[in-house]
Amino acid sequence: MKQTTHNIVMVRPANFFSNPETSESNRFQKPGQDDAAAQDSARAEFDGYVAALRAAGVNVLVIDDEQQGNTPDAIFPNNWISMHPDGRVFLYPMEAPNRRRERRDSVIARIRAEFAIGALSDLSAFEDEGKFLEGTGSMVFDHTNRLAYVCLSSRSHPEVLTALLMQLDYQALVFDAVDRGGAAIYHTNVMMAVGSKLAVVCLESIQPASARQRVCEQLQRHGKQIIEIDYTQMENFCGNVIELADAAGNAVFAMSSRAWHAFTPQQQATLAANGTVAHAPLDTIENLGGGGARCMVAENFLPQKQ
């Protein structure tokens, strides 16, 4: 399977605000803007990011969130859905009750209008057992090597992970990663990203040192050049980047402007030498939502209808 895709799905926010149901486990959230101003800022940032991705050659399917949904995190669809080349679609169990409303049949129907969906595998029943796995937030896939990197947290339960990997026929490398305060990092995709040739990783967050070494060795074994970021860079969302592809299959590195400016000049040069960099300001979304450029993108590997 290819590591990157040209097609992505993004959900335009209708009622974005800092979600109180997620703030306990998401230390990246920084509440502090009134809801109306937050929604206006988030929508402007969303549109700017979509424009930057399209300018770089990425095919973006934008779906509007429902106005009356009380779904403040609908802008992060990668947590509840993943779409695969054989037509399979997986739906994931979400920790916050108000995030479960994001799994909408209308979104799937909109995707189905343009792409071939085969089997739909719904893992959301695990919510009844208090077990969660929040899609490609919880897991960073190395598709080429059929591997998932997973840092454990309340949102990434080993039992759900096992159920998914059995269906995908993937293996997992599971480890602990903590922020500078020692708390578990809520999603793997804020501390690392894996592309076709490059991997961005906050190595100092991975505990203990033996686990850090294991992650490094696995990445290097699969030919990934590691761009190591520190806690300050991770807090500026340098780990929350994603490699996509333009129509010709060339790499596009998508990230926030905050993340781009937090990379060192040498790291910027490495990224730019390996593909096109597409970035846009996402400060409101990152501060209030605690997620950013990568979280906003649901990769779409489904076959396109003719």
Provide structural commentary.
- With 306 residues, this protein is of the alpha/beta class.
- The chain has one domain (7-299): L-arginine/glycine Amidinotransferase, Chain A (5-stranded Propeller), CATH 3.75.10.10.
- The chain is built from nine helices and 16 strands.
- The chain has a four-stranded mixed beta sheet with strand order 6-7-8-11. The chain has a three-stranded mixed beta sheet with strand order 2-1-16, sandwiched between helices. The chain has a three-stranded mixed beta sheet with strand order 3-4-5, with no helix packed on it.
- Helix 4 (158-168) links the parallel strand 7 (147-151) and strand 8 (171-177).
- Helix 1 crosses helix 9 (283-289).
- The longest helix has 21 residues, at 35-55.
How do the helices and strands line up, and which of them pair or pack?
Layout (H helix, E strand, L loop, with lengths): L6 E6 L22 H21 L3 E6 L16 E3 L5 E3 L13 H8 L7 E3 L12 H4 E4 L4 E5 L6 H11 L2 E7 L14 E3 L3 E4 L4 E2 L1 H13 L3 E4 L2 H5 L6 E4 L5 E6 H6 L2 H10 L1 E5 L2 H7 L8 E2 L7
Parallel strand pairs: 1-2, 4-5, 7-8, 10-12, 14-15
Antiparallel strand pairs: 1-16, 3-4, 6-7, 8-11, 9-10, 13-14
Helix pairs in contact: 1-9
